Amino acid sequence: MLTLTQIKKHPQILEFIKQTELTLAELSYTDHGFRHANLVAERAGKIAKEIGLSQRDGEIAAIAGFCHDMGNFLSRSYHNYFGALLFQQVFGNDFNPKELVIIMQTIANHDKRKKEVSFASSASAIVILADKSDVHRSRVIVQKMEEIKADIHDRVNYATRSSRLEIDKNKKRITLILRIDTNFVPIMEYFEIFTNRMVFCRRAAEYLGYDFGLVINKFRLL
């Protein structure tokens, strides 16, 4: 059984993510490269462990999390489907059929429109939570402040000083906790661009049997 450590060393996967990083940097998108891939994988594994999934289920979620954005070097549109197919082409003979399908579904499902998102596995819900909760100034690629201020996605990410998920197994609640510099952007701008993300997170948490909460600057908003 392949592990996350082995996936992280695979030359094709590394090249896919490297080219995604370069491609989206040219488009001045927020980071979708190695930083984001590693964070989502780590966060997915942590969520799986804290909600009580098996070690292997957590490994599968983390693998999907590491690979979820690697199709972006082919096209930003439908990158989720490209990523799933790339994974199958590289590892089609290395996973048992069930694990392979779960990873492919998870990669394909992470970036659908709100009405299309569905969950066929815990891994799919976990990766959505891990991915959509990654808002932070380190995701901003452009360097010039005037360019950062001109793009709402960059503004909100740049203003976010910390971002973490807190899981309360007893209360069955998953909470995204953010610290945002409101001198740089008003909190309303966060909701202006990330409302759909919060809907995805709520639905993902519900699939896992949890409520979803949002705390910004120590104020509970959800």
UniProtKB/TrEMBL annotation:
Residues 29-145 form the HD/PDEase domain. Gene3D superfamilies: Hypothetical protein af1432. Keywords: Hydrolase. GO terms for molecular function: hydrolase activity. SMART domains: HDc. It comes from the Bacteria. It holds the Pfam family HD. This is Phosphohydrolase. It comes from Candidatus Nealsonbacteria bacterium CG08_land_8_20_14_0_20_36_22.
